[in-house]
Design goal:
Strand content of chain B: under 5%
Structural class of chain A: alpha+beta
Number of helices of chain A: 16
Oligomer: heterodimer
Helix content of chain B: over 70%
Shape of chain A: globular
Radius of gyration of chain B: 24 Å
Number of strands of chain A: 22
Distance between the termini of chain A: 40 Å
Distance between the termini of chain B: 8 Å
Structural class of chain B: mainly alpha
Number of helices of chain B: 14
Chain lengths: 635, 323
């Protein structure tokens, strides 16, 4: 049974009931867009009750988890890192990192290769290790676990810049030579090349300290020793909360005989309680941590619409996800009693159409530019659900990651973003196409055989298929005839992940930040050296070398790229770095043009009326659980 | 009887082997998803891909992979659903632990619903059969028609919306934290799921009972019984119903066994953490060990239910003997 069928059924039920009850007319207009906090008296206490329809991806193993939802739980609640975020939105420095376990921002040597972190003193882990102080060696232990091949960490590539990291991973060294605990409270990190965003990388959960095992002080990975597959269920917290039952963890027995925490039951429950070791105020000024406990029901595969109704009914407080059903969004945005419980937030992600630079006709920049002019972005967004689904993108990287330096920049703007569906847009597209070698008679319509039956990969689903058809119709107006094929997600990705498949065009690509720096948008999909044999996400082959093109069997021998610019930006810090990324963006959009940017996605959130001080975290794109409180009268 | 038991046990083993082979073939040779893709993140090095493949045991020859799963079917400590083999790709937990944790929810859902549909369906079927053509019969058959036609997910959502969200008479979807399944049953959390699941089956059972009973009541031996002067009530319940229920018992055994393998839709609508929900999510995530575990359990339930039904036949129908 298709999920949309079930959704429609529930919608029908709601509509029926509303009609039967003589539901009054909606207030009209849309819900509040943008505010990141709501007011109300704040009093610590109460239990925050949440729901999510999917579990985390690796049972809370901080090295393996590579998922925004788990990042959110770590950041708000479970794990502190050297640097971290304030849990707020774009207008409140939510995209910056601040000292967390570090006492201050790190000092960086002039050559950018040595970073020194000073740690706060006197901080301890959660029970049962409440007597163990957090020290510099614990961060090295976390990095060793990140490098260890058997653990199969999710994003260890971010730490390859640390001297000796790769050697340790390859078993050539016993330690990571570039990481030194100068003393208990000083950590020095040496890099092989400058990485201006290292601060962000040390705000990722994989870098959170792993405590030593008091019962086995020599264990290289401390309490994580023997838990290569399942450390998440034995996690020792350093944040304001811990898994319920953490105090019962017993690290004195062999790993295989240890009982996991009761507060995390995969696919069922996350139950967090206060960590008695956590010290507020001067030791953690990032997390007020108002609520006493957080209880999250995990219900994989369940009807989200039922959970949304429970939020409206105040039975649960929040749904931990990236969106709500269209019916619920309408209900919350139009009902005066619910409007202040509905939020549309920037999502730190984008959607784009990918053109393969190594496959004709997309090897011609004029064709790629013509496609940019031709696509009706407004129509595409309307099919996605309208304005709430995102802001129409004039370029690739979300504006906040470029310091909003490119405000108003849209090199392929058409009236109302309607592309070839507007006369002016069609004219612009044809003018561009006329300059292409594939338009032999220069009438603005591609007439070369390369423009016939161009394979275009999409995904199944009512909305996605309609969007695919719209794009096909737009491109047909300039002579590009798409052979549209829609597959389930897994199959579709399987096709575009393999550079040997030579997929010319795909219409379902999107990207999401790992941390608020444009590097995470460029390093994977736009950087030639990142092209992989399997699971490749540079679908356009941007910046591929002639050797790579030959290796993957392309006839085109050269494609444009901006590898040097990416290398240049990656080494910079501060404002110069942001400026550099903005310049890279213009190169990407005007000289390379591997994509058609569609939208910068939004995140819709609904909350119960119990929540006060609603705050949205730009890093993990979720409500910040450590910032919100329960209304005193409802605790 | 002993020979019969041995034969049925062998049959059980063969069914499980065939099912496991089929499941293995479908998932390994015709995979709908890629478990590696989910586990390796967005930019996996070839070394990471190889490591995860090794961690999942997917680097071994096919027959070795199959044998590892097959040995997990052997009901012997250390082998049965061995935690090293039946270890979820998706959430790094033991499949056995998950199944044992979820089984009580599915059992409670199934038993409650089964009792309900029998209590509703069979009496309606009997009344319709003996009052054939009456207003009651017509009303009962309209109920049956609606019940059979109503999709479970729709019915579940309607019941939930009306009886919880609008009227507040019955508890919400989901189970309260920290309570046993029995406590949840006692607090009424299963009432709506039971009815949602039972109404369709009750409708079907009532039609089946009615049809069988009408047919049976036309048999010669029923006429003979009446000719002997046996009371009509005794004719219906002792002679007629007993034979009419034989196919119902067959169906009941299969239905219960099927549901024990997971009532996917009902668990999904009512947010019950049962086996069906587990199977569904595992399927979506190409979590082969979990799918294999649940599939084998489902097959086991069906074979055992068949066996129980066969035994019950002999009690219901004296002509049946164990051969």
């Amino acid at each position: 049974m298709g999920k949309h069928v079930r959704v429609l059924a529930f919608v029908a039920v709601l509509a029926l009931a509303a009609a039967a009850c003589g539901g009054g007319g909606g207030g009209g207009g849309t819900g509040p867009t943008g505010p990141t906090t709501t007011g109300g008296a704040i009093k610590p206490g109460g239990t925050l009750r949440a729901w999510m329809d999917t579990d985390v991806t690796a049972a809370f193993d901080p090295q393996k988890e590579y998922f925004q939802v788990s990042f959110a739980f770590y950041r708000c609640c479970l794990l502190r890192t050297l640097l971290s975020y304030n849990g707020k939105g774009p207008d409140q420095e939510g995209d910056k990192v601040f000292p967390d376990l570090a006492a201050e921002m790190p000092t960086v040597s002039d050559d950018g290769l040595t970073w020194t972190f000073k740690l706060k003193q006197g901080l301890h882990y959660a029970p049962p290790l409440q007597d163990v102080e957090i020290t510099a060696q614990d961060f090295i232990r976390a990095m060793m676990r990140t490098a260890k091949p058997e653990v199969a960490a999710g994003y260890s590539f971010y730490y390859s810049v640390i001297e000796g990291f790769d050697d340790f991973a390859a078993g050539k060294a016993d330690t990571i030579t570039g990481m030194t605990a100068v003393d208990d409270y000083t950590l020095q990190i040496k890099l092989t090349q400058p990485a201006g965003d290292l601060g962000y990388r040390f705000a990722m959960p994989a870098t959170a300290p792993i405590p030593p095992n008091p019962a086995d002080p020599k264990a290289p990975l401390g309490v994580a020793e023997g838990h290569d597959d399942d450390y998440g269920r034995f996690l020792v917290a350093s944040g304001p909360y811990m898994f319920e039952g953490s105090e019962d963890l017993d690290f004195s027995v062999p790993a295989k005989d240890q009982e996991p925490v009761a507060g995390y039951q995969p696919d069922k429950l996350i139950s967090l309680v206060r960590n008695p070791s956590w010290v507020a105020d001067d030791q953690d000024d990032l997390r007020p941590a108002y609520v006493d406990a957080i209880s999250v029901e995990i219900c994989p595969g369940c009807e989200q619409e039922v959970a949304e109704e429970k939020v409206a009914n105040d039975e649960i407080d929040h749904i931990f996800t990236n969106g709500v059903s269209a019916q619920t969004a309408r209900k919350f945005s139009q009902d005066p009693n619910l409007q202040d419980q509905y939020f549309v937030e920037p999502g730190s992600g984008n959607y784009y159409l990918a053109m393969n630079l190594a496959v004709p006709p997309f090897d011609d920049i004029h064709v790629r530019k013509a496609v940019n002019y031709a696509v009706n972005k407004e129509g595409w967004r309307r099919l996605s659900g309208g304005e709430a689904s995102g802001e129409i993108a004039g370029y690739y990287t979300p504006p906040s990651l470029l310091g909003n330096l490119l405000e108003g920049y849209d090199p392929y703007a058409t009236p109302n973003h309607e592309g070839a569906d507007s006369p002016e847009g069609l004219q612009l597209a044809k003018q561009e196409m006329a300059q292409s070698k594939y338009d032999t008679n220069k009438d603005g319509i591609c007439d070369a055989p390369e423009c016939k039956n161009v394979l275009s990969i999409g995904v199944v689903g009512r909305v996605a298929e309609a969007q695919h058809q719209l794009i096909a119709q737009n491109l047909a107006a300039i002579g590009i005839e798409l052979d549209t094929k829609n597959f389930d997600n897994s199959t579709a990705y399987g096709k575009i992940f393999d550079p040997k498949n030579h997929i010319p065009f795909s219409v379902f690509a999107g990207w999401l930040q790992d941390y608020p720096d444009a590097y995470t948008f460029y390093f994977f999909p736009m950087y030639g050296p990142s092209i992989l044999d399997q699971y490749n996400t540079n679908y356009s082959m941007t910046g591929a070398s002639p050797e790579q093109l030959k290796k993957y069997g392309y006839e085109v021998t050269e494609v444009p790229g901006l590898n040097d610019k990416i290398d240049e930006c990656a080494a910079l810090t501060g404002d110069a770095r942001v400026q550099c990324w903005a310049e890279a963006e213009k190169i990407l959009m005007e000289d390379v043009v591997p994509i058609v940017p569609m939208i910068w996605s939004n995140v819709e959130q609904i909350i119960s009326s119990r929540i006060v001080n609603y705050t949205y975290c730009l890093f993990d794109n979720q409500m910040a659980y450590e910032q919100v409180a329960i209304a005193p009268e409802l605790q | 009887m002993i020979r019969y038991m041995i034969r049925r046990t062998l049959f059980l083993v063969i069914v499980l082997v065939v099912v496991s082979l089929f499941t293995f073939f479908v998932f390994v040779k015709l995979p709908a998803g890629d478990p590696i893709a989910r586990a390796v993140g967005r930019h996996p090095s070839p070394e990471l891909v190889a490591q995860v493949r090794k961690n999942f045991g997917l680097d071994r020859p096919l027959w070795v992979q199959y044998w590892k799963f097959a040995s997990g079917m052997i009901p012997w400590p250390g082998l049965f659903l061995n935690e090293k083999v039946y270890f979820s790709y998706r959430n790094q937990t033991s499949v056995k632990e998950q199944i044992l944790d979820r089984l009580p929810v599915t059992v409670a859902l199934t038993i409650g619903a089964a009792v309900l549909w029998l209590l509703i369906g069979i009496p309606i079927g009997i009344i319709s059969a003996i009052r054939r053509g009456s207003l009651l019969d017509r009303a009962a058959m309209i109920f049956a028609l609606i019940g059979v036609s109503a999709p479970i997910f729709w019915l579940g959502l309607v019941l939930l919306y009306v009886f919880h969200f609008r009227l507040g008479w019955l508890p919400t979807a989901g189970l309260p934290k920290g309570q046993s399944v029995l406590e949840s049953v006692a607090q009424g959390y299963f009432v709506l799921p039971w009815f949602s699941l039972a109404i369709t089956s009750a409708a079907f059972y009532s039609r089946m009972t009615r049809g069988n009973l009408i047919e049976t009541m036309a048999e010669d031996y029923i006429r003979t019984a009446r000719a002997k002067g046996i009371s009509e009530r005794r004719v219906i319940f002792r002679h007629g119903l007993r034979a009419a229920l034989t196919p119902v018992v067959t169906m009941f055994g299969m239905d219960v066994a099927f549901l024990l393998g997971g009532a996917v839709i009902t668990e999904s609508v009512f947010q019950l953490p049962g086996l069906g929900q587990y199977a569904l999510v595992s399927l979506y995530a190409a979590d082969f060990p979990a799918v294999m575990g649940v599939t084998l359990l489902g097959a086991f339930f069906i074979v055992v239910a068949n066996f129980i039904v066969d035994v019950l036949y002999a009690f219901l129908d004296p002509r049946v003997r164990y051969t």
